[in-house]
Amino acid sequence: MSDLPAAKPEPPEVLAAIYRHFRDFFDMGERRRRWSVTDDVPWVQCNRSLEPAVADVVQTFCAVELYLPDYLAKGFPMVRANRGRAWSLAAWGYEESKHSMILEDWLLKSGMRSDEQIADMHREVFSHEWDLPYDSSCGMLVYTVFQELATRIHYSRLTQVVRREGGCPALEKALTLIAVDEAAHADFFRRLVTEYLAFDRPGTLEQIRRVMTTFSMPAVHMLADGMQRASEVRRLELFNEEICHLQVFEPTLAKWGVDRKELRRRTRREISYPGVGDKVTG
User: Fold this and answer.
1) Which of 11, 110, 118, 282 could potentially form a cystine with 46 if both were Cys, beta carbons 3.0 to 4.6 Å apart?
2) Which of 36, 56, 35 is nearest to 110 (CA)?
3) Pair 181, 33: CB distance under 8 Å
4) What does the pLDDT look like over 182-232, one tens digit per residue?
């Protein structure tokens, strides 16, 4: 358990503001971001000759998405009394389930994986249970902002790798659809954190500091070959410490109006990116 002070109860005006953000997010998604796994990808244009490392990374992303039951089951109890947070988790889960399906479909339709290999992946994932990295609903919200933005970067940069390797219209379309969703998720959850900063700035800043000093992408370490898969992500330059700082942390802090000085402590603390790279200090 955390030794941090208990979070303040959310007053009605904060709950109402969060629900308004959710409705804006949901309504915009209904109008502009709904897509079909079956109909919106040119499946007949799968490139079966891509570098095997691309399929390895796609499988990694697919496996991480398969932990969705844990993400939802562990998340709902923290936000059950906050309709905007709970409903947004349900909507987020629907979209993330499509991400898992579209990646799995590409692995099969491209011939990069067999039905038996996909079944093995399912068995491995479901043999482990993912747990929340933070015991604070605000901390989880901050984590989700960083994680969604980092995931969008992973997918966008993998799209560039695929194009350099000769292209695959099917995979490029799938990755683009997912990246758009992830960007929308990151922006939405970022707006919710802004509400918490206005409501309880000291408490929210502590959660931001806490997440930034312990941030890691979810679930990769739980896979049997997690270190190898993380190495492939680094080798293809999809994500690393520099990208995390410059494209995830810094722009998000700027949008929140948070200065680094507000996050400083007198002692140096390690920032670790398990599954991304080596430790750095800051």
Assistant:
1) 110
2) 56
3) yes
4) 999 999 999 999 999 999 999 999 999 999 999 987 755 544 455 565 666
